[in-house]
Amino acid sequence: MAVFVAKRLATMILMLLLVATMIFLMFRTMPGDPTASMVDPSIPREARQALLERYGLHESLWTQYRIFMADLVRLDFGSSYFYNRPVLEVIGERLPATLILMFAAMLFAYALGVLGGAWMAWNRGTWREAAGITFSLIFRSAPTFWVGLMAVMLFAVTLGWFPAQGMRTTGYTGDTFREVFVSLDFLRHLILPAAVAGLYFLATPLLIMRNSMLEVMSEDYIEMARAKGLREIRILYKHAARNALLPVVTAGALFIGAAIGGQVLIEVVFSWPGLGREIVQAVTRSDYPLAQGIFIIISALVMSMNLAADIVYGLLDPRITYH
Amino acid sequence: MLDVQNLTIEYTTAAGPLRAVEDVSFTLQRGESLGIVGESGCGKTTATRALLRLLPKNGAITAGRILFDGDDLVRKSDAEIRRLRHRHIALISQSAMNALNPVYTVGEQIKEGIRAHTRMSDQEARARCVEVFGLVGLEAKRLDSYPHQLSGGMKQRAVIAMALSLEPEIIVADEPTTALDVVVQGRILQRLRQIRERISSSMIFITHDISVVGESCETIIVMYGGRIMERADTRSFFRAPAHPYSMGLQNAFPSIADIGHADLVSIPGSPPDLLAPQPGCRFRARCPFADADACQTRTPPLLQVADRHWAACWYTDQAAGFRARARDHATWRKAAADGR
User: pLDDT tens, A186-242?
Assistant: First the structure.
């Protein structure tokens, strides 16, 4: 197992370098250059040239690439043109907010999806199953920002149960991670965006779990469990669900990449100070170092999730061993 | 102990109701071993699943009673049936290969069954597992194996051990050896016989292989198209089958002594369509001896032909003559050609 994880980590590093190369080239081939957003377009040509030189953008593509990669392996992502601060610092501020919101939403979607999917398979062909499918598909099809706005209107404005936006009550300033994220106030702010994002994610685990359960329930060992006189609920969750989980885990790992993208709208609607908004802004500002940094972090995240899924596989199914 | 009376089971299908089992009656005494034989789709599996009330959702018992020690299982609540399963009537499933959950060890799965019905502690249940593993000839350390770590024969024995673990009054074995090779099959059948003698459970053995029944059962039931064609003491059955279908079955399976001597005779045609039941004998379309009158219009009841021997045929009095003719291929081919 340890050897397997070590091997996978090594592959991951290679893949990340490859991804970094692609990202580097992608931004260089995009129209527009960073000076356009940093300064007034009417500045003199000389001043603009000086700026380009200061950031090393006058160098050949090959030289820029060499410097970029050399810095990268030392985990130096450079400085943001826009913020004039190290990229890692900017990401470090935004990443926890995004990760916490994302995992809260995934937890919500997966807990409800797995249990609900199993329950729907059990209620095959009844109105309950139809209601479950309809419910999850409504939230998958409806635009997230619209659902988000509706939720704000109902639960924040009309009912006043939850705050409408932000991560902490306005006026609060905290510096350390503990101060910002470990509090009831933060939790109250988290619930609404996490639920809206979770409802959007829900359809995937729910429907995959349902299909997978339907397949498992026709297996002989399920009939055998019944013949043993076990309770239906035990058969459902102990014998069938564990076998049905594998495809759901796979989908979860793949889904996380999409989730980060999908989160942008949620972050905007709820004024959530996360990475999602930052990435859009960094791209439009041609803030190369920041955009590159964020993309690489996201790539690393997706790869880690895939590794995590492989490890969970081994824990769920004894037939899978790693060498 | 078990008294099944006029059991009828129907499946609701898109094409209409399908009567899988019709008017089936039999009894099972304590310690008795009963074999139910028939082709695929003859209703043998459905009939025995009904004993455990394990029919699929679209299946229902529409008539008849299943008396177990005097109580009608058809009328029992789900919770009562659940307590009865495994503890009193245990199942050895059709395909042992898939009867064990791949994600739990064999020991966990046997223990689970024990603990669902008794107040045994984990250690006591484990001790019981070791005991039944001994009975089926598996080492105790195999309890900690996952199903995929065992061979087919070992899995089958583990499933048998599971069925024995609470010493049920009745063990229902549904084609317990079909998926195994002949050598392993023989060994497992022999072990089942020994165990049954030791713990004095009754046994219902479902199979399409008539030779299996000959070796292990005292009584035999032959089913065709959802109905019982013949019910007899095994010895009497093999000496003098009274139903043409039984004769066909006996000639269709080789016994070691026959190889190189007698030809195997197969029964041409396929089982009747249960969606559109016709009056008359179920077997008449494939029967070389069917006439144009009674066989076509009236369903024959089970008629006694000898001591502990019944057959559902209008011409049991001519059975001796049928038996002689049934050994000849030409007899069966002619029936197929006539296409009745």
Answer: 788 888 888 888 898 888 899 999 999 999 988 889 999 999 999 988 998 899 988
Domain that holds residue B321: 223-338
Residue in chain A nearest B160 by alpha carbon? A224
Do the beta carbons of residue B113 and residue B129 sit within 8 Å? no
Q: What is the pLDDT of residues A280-320, one digit of tens each?
A: 888 888 788 888 888 888 888 888 888 888 888 888 888 87
User: Same structural domain for residues B160 and B19?
Assistant: yes
- Look up the ipTM and state it: 0.85
CATH code (residue B248): 3.40.50.300
Residue to mutate among B48, B49, B76, B103, with most A CBs inside 10 A, is B103
Contacts of A239 in chain B (CB under 8 A): 101
Does residue B153 sit in the same domain as residue B193?
A: yes
Q: What is the DSSP letter of A38?
A: H
Average pLDDT on B84-108 reads: 88
Partners of B103 on chain A (C-beta within 8 Å) are 242-243, 316-318
pLDDT (mean) for A27-38 = 67
Residues B275 and B143 in one domain: no
Q: Does B86 lie at the interface with A, CB-CB under 8 angstroms?
A: yes
Pair B43, B223: CB distance under 8 Å: yes
One DSSP character per residue, A132-162 reads: HHHHHHHHHHS-HHHHHHHHIIIIIIIS--S
Cα distance between residue A234 and residue B277, in whole Å:
40
Sheet containing strand B71-72, edge to edge, reads: B16-28, B2-13, B59-68, B71-72
Domains observed in chain A = 2-73 (no CATH), 91-316 (1.10.3720.10)
Cα B305 off chain centre by: 23
Domain match, B176 and B227 both = no
- Chain A nearest-CA distance from B130, in A, is 18
Asked whether residue B151 falls in the same domain as residue B75, the answer is yes
Half-sphere exposure of B95 (CA within 13 A, CB side): 10
pLDDT of residue A230: 92
Of B186, B217, B248, at which residue does a domain stop?
B217
Number of domains in chain B: 2
- How far B245 CA lies from chain A's nearest CA (Å)? 31
Query: ∠ at Cα A307 (A302, A309), nearest 5°?
Result: 95
Regarding whether B296 and B154 lie in a shared domain, the answer is no
Long-range contacts of A13-19, Cβ-Cβ distance < 8 Å, separation of 24 or more: A15/A299, A15/A303, A16/A296, A16/A299, A16/A300, A16/A303, A17/A69, A17/A72, A17/A73, A19/A295, A19/A296, A19/A299
- Which of B199, B217, B235 corresponds to the end of one domain? B217
Nearest-CA neighbor of B209 among B245, B177, B233? B177
Provide CB contacts within 8 A for A53, sequence distance 6+.
none
The answer to whether residue B162 neighbours chain A at the CB level (below 8 Å) is yes
Residues B106 and B128 in one domain: yes
Same domain for B325 and B194 = no
